Amino acid sequence: MNVTITPSNVEGTVRAPPSKSYTHRAILAAGYADEATVRDALWSADTRATARAVTLFGGDVTRTDDGVLEIDGFDGRPDVPADVIDCANSGTTMRLVTAAAALADGTTVLTGDESLRSRPQGPLLEALADLGAEADSTRGNGQAPLVVTGPLSGGDVSIPGDVSSQYITALLLAGAVTEDGIAIDLETELKSAPYVDITLEVLADFGVDARHTDAGFEVDGGQSYAPVGGEYAVPGDFSSISYPLAAGAIAGDEGATVRIEGAHPSAQGDSAIVEIVERMGADVDWDRDAGTIDVSTAPLSGIDVDVEDTPDLLPTIATLGAVADGDTHITNAEHVRYKETDRVSAMAAELGKLGVETTEEPDSLTIHGTESTLEGATVRGRADHRIIMALALAGLVADGETTIEGADHVAVSYPGFFSTLEELGVSLERDDGH
């Protein structure tokens, strides 16, 4: 699907979609349990991949008419799947499920789409092998397809922290139901640390004790997953909140306000987007108790932003920088190159088609707002939901129409994204090619 956006002003109230990060963890945690109910879950392409894995491990995920997930779990010991686990485009699914597969008394095969088969899994495979499982890349390059044979009993393991925090999350989730537990020694500084804090928060809500240590993290073995009252509710997603928040900051009419509901505080590092937008000069009011954010447009100025802990915000910040005066310098960004696409190069190239001047370094991206013009053009979504949504923001304030090719990939994390824009008053056309 291609989407063409006409420059538009935004105003109104929208609700934050549920968190993708929390939903993945909650679905798998419920799978590790005997049974659990997950409310307010994001039902997207990525989270459905995790639900399919739970089913292949012997559980069952049923979505009711009101969107509640009723999950019968595999109670800490996954079956050997009767089929290959297809993780589609979901890196989170592959990492978390690979560790779960190591608990099964047999062999599991995992794969995904072309993009996912290019993403690094080697450190996790090595960690699982060190813990007693067999874990291999079929091509010997640390990338999917993966073949994992268990069971593992736990123990001590070391792993780099600067490739993906999801390796640590995967080991903590699985470690709770091993015999010996797992103690993780970080070989390097942990990138995207707030995502592990999310994991610790979800584990605690499911009655599992895991914790920081001087060396890294550890989780005791022999634990059971059981949320209080048998239910868990997923909070709103700040990665997704960044898009309507940025839209309100750059495309509001004078005196107009965009209100975002469902923005309650949590361990999400991406809540930093609220402060970032405020630092750039927008008028932002976050009522944490009510879970509402009000934002209105004001002249923006470029700032320095470190995305070591918030890699998913880079595309949004890059678009904000294109509208701002001066330079916006995004640093500590090398790990952002290993997402669904190389998001550093992708944003530089696609914003460049719109007339934005950038400077790209191995671990940084600088957007030269003052030297840039925003002219409508045809840009590529690159099969990456966050690139698509960030480019859509640019289309709100570009001179002329902006067409985004492959825009249907927003279904990965924010299926209702374009409908949300329309609710805020954006004029857009969808072309599904038929």
Automatic annotation (TrEMBL):
Q: Which PROSITE patterns match?
A: EPSP_SYNTHASE_1, EPSP_SYNTHASE_2
| Residues reported in the UniProt entry to bind phosphoenolpyruvate | K20, G91, R119, Q166, R343, R386
Q: Which reaction does it catalyse?
A: 3-phosphoshikimate + phosphoenolpyruvate = 5-O-(1-carboxyvinyl)-3-phosphoshikimate + phosphate
Q: Where is the active site?
A: D312
**Per its UniProt entry, what is the enzyme's top EC class, as one word?**
transferase
Sorted alphabetically, which SUPFAM superfamilies does this protein's record hold?
A: EPT/RTPC-like
Q: Where in the cell is it found?
A: Cytoplasm
Q: What EC number(s) is this enzyme filed under?
A: 2.5.1.19
Gene Ontology BP term (one)? aromatic amino acid family biosynthetic process
Q: Where, by residue number, does 3-phosphoshikimate bind? A: K20, S21, R25, S164, S165, Q166, S192, D312, K339
Q: Which family does it belong to?
A: Belongs to the EPSP synthase family.
Q: Which HAMAP family match?
A: EPSP_synth
**Which protein, by its recorded name, is this?**
3-phosphoshikimate 1-carboxyvinyltransferase
The organism of origin for this protein: Natrinema altunense (strain JCM 12890 / CGMCC 1.3731 / AJ2)
